């Protein structure tokens, strides 16, 4: 019996495995966790079904078109429309964007089915699978299976083998793994990360589609069922640490076996309703806590979520507040004269707004993404209902509900200390599902499916059965929460929180307690959500376990983030929109699917404007003003007029690079032509300009040492040269051609190689694979450097510092670049190794490579340099032959005397 | 930092106080005053609208109930209306199987569209019950959920199907099946439910129906995941096949929602060699016959509709067919359509019995004051009694050779108290 369960469980697990590996693949390659992975599977299954039913194509052909054509194209399309932008947006936007897709994609499919009058995707029946229909029963190895199951298993084996071969033995796979390992370095090695991402999405989407089509004969054409499938696959992906496809695959298979064993042998768990259904979720949570401690981030902070600039900072306070005051007055006025029905809608919107305020606290201020907010609201409401029904006074029941939500918040926040970023988000997701599936199924707590009824809240002269009273009450409560938020932001604790969020490490060294701050925020937000939940129940008059499902929390988060999660205004606007929008659709008689699609399209907006609509409005207002105030500021900054022409080069006609190429290319003068040039380059980070007009020239076979004190802008200059950082003004020329607009990978392919500060190796890839990122065949490297040959199968991360630096530079020996830029190549190396490294440079120079060596410590660099450039405060202050460098010049360069 | 946060917590607590200040003043209730004319009622019309789950993420849809109600109302209008008033049927709102949307839909119909009553309400997760009860608005439909039961305004066409412990619970399913099989003596029954409190509750009432009819309970299993069918039925089928002292039971009752669960379970059971009786409440659906695999899996299944089957030759069914044919020729009759039809039928009967003077108060007083109505289409209905228990009537149909056949006609049985 147990063998039967294990074998047939493996077949079940095959679907999880295929879907999970797609999830891991796309996450690892792009950093975006795709909540819409299940929705893609659903849509592909729908296409399969329609090709088969509506067009009458044979099942195998329908499956082929759906899986091999439709799903990958969808993935590519989504990459172009959304994922590419999301990869740069903050984590909140990423989560919300893909959640939007989860809702929009199935709706889109169903709408098309409706509009074209295709056979309806009737979830009550099971559609056919790829195999014969009805499926034929077989008994291989004595296990009872049917043809659909066998086909599924066969596909999983083929997929596993194919993925392994693709990732290990093709250049695409190597590039993908390189981008996963060190994204920035990969671009510097000529890997087009955008193309790699596109490939990852295409492939990941194809895998989702395959799993979707394989699952359709088992779960039916049901978008919800596919979401359930996604959660199970997410569990597998988490056990693969969101990085390893083989482990994900194995975990998926194991999950199938575990489910079978649980179903077969755990009748003693029957009393606890939902516990067995929740096994994947419980494993998900366990896997997150045990396996996925974030290495880079602490306490749930997402460091890249820096707040946007406050574009209204210059606007007087009254002017900032004016729109809100006017809107508030209008709302209050409307409340007292408007028809009952619409006032009721406004009240409902404000209930949601109150709940949404909790997102402002936890996400807007705390930078944590919480998907369990609906569960906190339900928790509080059910506790309140339970307490009231057990005879406690209503007031006490309400307080108890709010406290209960806060207490659960504390319980969730504790593991959150050890998790970071997406892991925390997934943990709250697991918790929300667990609450739905287990906690709210406890009859004593939720009173079965009946729920609790709650009376109206009275104030002597009026009570909350009147929508007008509700509106006023809620406005007051939201006002209180607004003050609280304001207080938090302005206070010392608020600044501490912001510090923790923007730079966790720095905050810790400054003595700020990140965990405690985080816990406080989380608990506070949970309590606010709880208060909102209680009011939700009061205004409805009752609460049941299914009134506030976990999925509502996902939608809520999306609505708030779309408006702007950093301010109470966004929450209020979100709440009102959440109720008014469906009302408008109903009035105009538009299909509910359209609403869902528009909502998903919001995710695409978010990919471009991650801070939401409100911030977007302020920004465009700001832009309008600035444009009016300073006509054409850009022209001024790109003006190529040089105040300080380069000392050692005559000026070609700058405005026409082709002329320049002509002159240089055909140059037969004694002085060798210049190969690489930075021309009046201005660049920096966000609001901080680092390079203020850098000019630099490197010729073939020449080594230029760029020297300067810490903070002079040397590394920034390297980054601009390699295309890692865009120049805001000025040009970068390679062999006379303007390559300023080229992305890093294209420059690398054209022969501009940057060995970045630190070690330029992919620590997760083996020595051999590291070499292959630049060389088709690493054999020659091994001849030159036998030490690397010995360690070819060792992951580069396990090498010594010196070996790593050799590994960084070795490929250049075999396939010399045209320009090699080395940023602090001697940093942290033993003197003997440093010597070896500089011997390499000397050899490269002999072979005609243009070398740009950036060093803080001048001695070694000066030894091989032909020319020297000093940098100070973002400018090259002096350039000249090495012979002219003496102690005085060096002192001047480093100490700033001129 | 701690100071500020503490201040914040204090502020929040104060807000809570404010909310709770002078709390518990009103115990709900209220409702609209009994002023002369009722909303939605004119001298010549009564305005009616419904709430259905037309669309849902899972694809479950009760939209056919709209057509059923419309067919019944059209006939009433063709016959000159009730007390000179024709039915102005606005159609049904869609709640998308979302409690909050159902609540909003109910509010829209009552406050904005000013309907007199809600007919048909057929949504498994209907969220407007508390509002309608508070406002004193009658609503008619299929009372599958506890939100219907114990109200004064919610009228299930066949009573409350979610009785509380102690209230009456149906026995017709077990007894009808016992009659069909020629007695229940020595026959064992296995009840399969899924892992949610709603489904488990169904398992309890239905097990009781069968034990009341004299069957021996071989087992009740609720291990099935609720949200989606399991990819692998092996563990569940193994349990069933060994439940009756190591052998298969005589009858398997499936209390899981949706044909796709049943198709999966039945195919797996048949593949494992199960030869006994399969019965459930949802398989009576002509749509399943379209798909060869579903039809094959369901062949021989005994479905248990709670209305007279469409294959019956009762005159009420002939009239139902004719009414529907008039409104929408060529329509396939479905369970949801019948529910909408019979809910509308009971509403019209009550409208007639309320009399010419029509207010919601008077209507509810009539309905809740020893109301009795018998109709071979759905059996019988008694209010207020059936606010808290089902009407106890049902029929059996069998799928044989790819077509449904009446196995047992509509019949009513006494309820027994729910344990």
Write up what this structure looks like.
The complex is a heterodimer of chains A (about 900) and B (about 425). Chain A has 36 helices and 14 strands. Helix content of chain A is about 60%, strand content about 10%. In chain A, a hairpin with a 6-residue loop joins strand 1 (about 135-140) and strand 2. Chain A has a six-stranded mixed sheet, with helices on both faces. Chain A is an alpha/beta fold. Chain B has two domains: about 45-160 and about 310-390, Rossmann fold; about 170-305 and about 395-415, Response regulator (Rossmann fold, 3-Layer(aba) Sandwich), CATH 3.40.50. Chain B has twelve helices and 16 strands. Chain B has helices at about 1-20, 65-80, 100-110, 130-135, 170-180, 195-210, 235-240, 260-270, 290-300, 315-325, 335-355, 360-365; strands at about 45-50, 85-95, 115-120, 140-145, 155-160, 170, 190-195, 215-225, 250-255, 275-280, 300-305, 370-375, 380-385, 395-400, 405-410, 415. In chain B, helix 5 (about 170-180) packs across helix 6 (about 195-210). Residues about 1-35 of chain B have low confidence and may be disordered. Classes of the chains: A alpha/beta (about 900), B alpha/beta (about 425). Chains A and B meet through helix 1, helix 8, helix 9, helix 10 and helix 13 of A and helix 1, helix 3, helix 4, helix 6 and strand 8 of B.
């Amino acid at each position: 019996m147990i063998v039967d369960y294990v074998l047939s469980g493996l077949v079940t697990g095959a679907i999880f495995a295929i879907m999970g590996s797609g999830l891991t693949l796309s996450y690892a390659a792009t950093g975006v966790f795709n909540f819409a992975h299940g929705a893609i599977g659903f849509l592909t299954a729908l296409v399969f079904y329609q090709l088969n039913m509506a067009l009458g194509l044979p099942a195998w052909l329908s499956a082929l078109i759906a899986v091999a054509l439709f799903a990958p194209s969808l993935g590519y399309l989504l990459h172009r429309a959304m994922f590419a932008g999301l990869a740069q947006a903050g984590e909140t936007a990423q989560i919300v964007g893909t959640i939007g897709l989860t809702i929009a994609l199935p709706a889109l499919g169903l709408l098309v089915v409706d509009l074209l009058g295709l056979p309806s995707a009737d979830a009550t029946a099971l559609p056919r699978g790829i195999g014969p229909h009805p499926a034929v029963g077989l008994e291989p190895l004595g296990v009872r299976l049917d043809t659909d199951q066998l086909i599924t298993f066969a596909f999983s084996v083929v997929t596993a083998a194919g993925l392994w071969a693709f990732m290990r033995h093709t250049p695409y796979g190597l590039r993908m793994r390189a981008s996963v390992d060190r994204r920035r370095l990969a671009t510097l090695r000529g890997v087009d990360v955008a193309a790699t991402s596109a490939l990852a999405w295409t492939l990941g989407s194809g895998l989702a589609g395959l799993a979707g089509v394989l699952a359709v004969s088992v779960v039916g054409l049901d978008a919800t069922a596919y979401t359930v499938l996604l959660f199970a696959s997410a569990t597998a992906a988490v056990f693969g640490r969101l990085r390893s496809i083989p482990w994900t695959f194995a975990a998926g298979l194991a999950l199938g076996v575990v489910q079978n064993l649980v179903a077969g042998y755990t009748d003693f768990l029957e009393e606890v309703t939902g516990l067995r259904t929740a096994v994947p979720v419980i494993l998900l949570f366990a896997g997150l806590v045990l396996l996925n401690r974030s290495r880079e981030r602490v306490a749930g902070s997402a460091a890249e979520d820096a707040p946007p600039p406050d574009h209204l900072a210059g606007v007087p306070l009254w002017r900032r507040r004016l729109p809100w005051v006017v809107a508030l007055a209008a709302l209050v006025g409307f409340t007292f004269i408007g028809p009952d029905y619409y006032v009721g809608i406004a009240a409902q919107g404000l209930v949601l707004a109150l709940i949404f305020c909790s997102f402002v606290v936890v996400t807007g201020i705390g930078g944590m993404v919480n998907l369990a907010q609906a569960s906190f609201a339900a928790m509080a409401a059910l506790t309140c209902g339970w307490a009231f029904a057990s005879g406690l006074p209503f007031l006490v029941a309400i307080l108890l509900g709010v406290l209960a939500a806060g207490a659960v918040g504390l319980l969730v926040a504790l593991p959150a200390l050890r998790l970071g970023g997406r892991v925390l988000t997934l943990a709250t997701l697991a918790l929300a599902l667990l609450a739905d599936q287990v906690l709210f199924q406890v009859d004593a707590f939720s009173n079965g499916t009946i729920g609790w009824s709650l009376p109206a809240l009275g104030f002597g002269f009026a009570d909350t059965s009147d929508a007008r009273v509700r509106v006023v009450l809620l406005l007051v409560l939201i006002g209180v929460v607004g003050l609280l938020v304001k207080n938090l932001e302005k206070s010392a604790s608020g600044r501490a929180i912001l510090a923790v969020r923007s730079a966790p490490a720095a905050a810790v060294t400054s003595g700020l307690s990140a965990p405690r701050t985080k816990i406080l925020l989380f608990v506070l937000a949970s309590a606010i959500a709880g208060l909102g939940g209680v009011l939700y129940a009061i205004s409805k008059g009752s609460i049941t376990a299914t009134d506030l499902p976990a999925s509502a929390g996902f939608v809520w988060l999306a609505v708030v983030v779309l408006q702007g999660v950093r301010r109470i205004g966004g929450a209020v606007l979100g709440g009102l929109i959440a109720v008014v929008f469906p009302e408008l659709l109903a009035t105009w008689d538009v299909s509910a699917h359209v609403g869902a699609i528009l909502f998903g399209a919001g995710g695409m907006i978010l990919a471009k404007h991650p801070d939401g609509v409100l911030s977007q409005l302020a920004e465009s207002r700001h832009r309008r003003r600035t444009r009016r105030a300073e006509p054409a500021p850009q022209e001024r900054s790109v003006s190529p007029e040089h105040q300080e022409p380069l000392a050692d080069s005559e000026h070609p006609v700058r405005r026409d690079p082709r002329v320049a190429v002509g002159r240089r290319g055909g140059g037969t003068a004694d002085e060798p032509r210049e190969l690489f040039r930075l021309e009046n380059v201005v660049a920096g980070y966000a609001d901080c300009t680092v390079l203020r007009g850098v000019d630099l020239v490197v010729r073939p076979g020449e080594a230029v040492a760029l020297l300067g004190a810490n903070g002079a802008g040397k590394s920034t200059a390297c980054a601009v040269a390699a295309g890692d950082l865009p120049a805001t003004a000025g040009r970068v020329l390679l062999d006379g051609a303007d390559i300023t607009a080229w992305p890093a990978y294209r420059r690398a392919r054209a022969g501009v190689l940057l060995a970045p500060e630190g070690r330029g190796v992919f620590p997760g890839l083996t020595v051999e694979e590291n070499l292959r990122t630049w060389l088709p065949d690493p054999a020659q490297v091994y001849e030159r450097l036998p030490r690397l040959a010995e360690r070819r199968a060792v992951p580069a991360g396990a090498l010594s510092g010196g070996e790593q630096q050799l590994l960084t530079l070795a490929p250049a020996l075999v396939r010399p670049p045209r320009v090699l830029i080395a940023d602090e190549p001697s940093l942290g190396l033993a003197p003997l190794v440093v010597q070896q490294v500089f011997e390499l440079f000397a050899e490269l120079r002999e072979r005609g490579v243009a070398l740009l060596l950036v060093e803080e410590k001048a001695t070694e660099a000066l030894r091989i340099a032909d020319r020297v450039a000093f940098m100070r405060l973002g400018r090259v202050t002096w350039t000249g032959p090495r012979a002219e460098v003496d102690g005085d010049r060096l002192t001047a360069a480093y100490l700033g005397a001129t | 930092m701690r100071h500020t946060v503490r201040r914040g917590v204090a502020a929040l607590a104060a807000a809570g106080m404010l909310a709770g200040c002078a709390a518990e003043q009103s115990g709900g209730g209220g409702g609209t005053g009994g002023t002369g004319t009722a909303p939605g009622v004119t001298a010549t019309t009564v305005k009616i609208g419904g709430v259905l789950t037309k669309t849902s993420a899972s694809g479950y849809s009760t939209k056919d109930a709209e057509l059923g109600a419309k067919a019944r109302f059209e006939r009433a209008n063709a016959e000159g209306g009730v007390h000179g008033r024709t039915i102005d049927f606005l159609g049904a709102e869609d709640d998308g199987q979302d409690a909050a949307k159902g609540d909003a839909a109910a509010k829209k119909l009552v406050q904005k569209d000013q309907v007199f009553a809600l007919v048909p309400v057929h949504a498994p997760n209907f969220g407007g019950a508390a509002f309608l009860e508070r406002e004193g608005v009658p609503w008619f439909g299929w009372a599958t959920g506890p939100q219907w039961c114990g109200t004064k305004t919610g009228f299930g066409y066949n009573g409350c199907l979610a009785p509380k412990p102690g209230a009456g619970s149906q026995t017709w399913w077990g007894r009808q099946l016992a009659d069909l099989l020629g007695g229940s003596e020595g026959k064992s029954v296995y009840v399969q439910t899924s892992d949610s409190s709603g489904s488990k509750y169904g398992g309890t009432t239905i097990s009781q129906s069968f034990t009341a009819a004299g069957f021996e309970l071989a087992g009740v299993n609720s291990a099935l995941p609720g949200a989606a069918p399991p990819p692998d039925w092996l563990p569940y089928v193994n349990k069933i096949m060994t439940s009756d002292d190591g052998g298969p039971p005589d009858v398997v009752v499936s209390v899981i929602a949706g044909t796709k669960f049943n198709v999966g379970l039945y195919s797996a059971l048949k593949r494992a060699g199960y030869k006994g009786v399969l019965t459930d409440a949802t398989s009576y659906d002509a749509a399943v016959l379209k798909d060869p695999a579903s039809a094959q899996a369901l062949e021989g299944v005994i479905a248990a509709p709670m209305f007279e089957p469409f294959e019956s030759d009762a005159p009420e069914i002939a009239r139902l067919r004719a009414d529907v044919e008039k409104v929408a020729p060529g329509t396939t009759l479905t369970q949801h359509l019948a529910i909408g039809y019979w809910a509308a039928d009971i509403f019209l009967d009550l409208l007639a019995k309320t009399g010419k003077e029509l207010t919601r108060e008077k209507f509810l007083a009539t309905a809740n004051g020893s109301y009795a109505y018998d109709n071979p289409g759905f059996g019988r209905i008694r209010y207020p009694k059936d606010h808290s228990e089902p009407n106890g009537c049902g029929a059996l149909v069998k799928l044989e050779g790819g077509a449904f056949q009446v196995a047992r006609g509509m019949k009513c049985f006494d309820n027994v108290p729910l344990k």
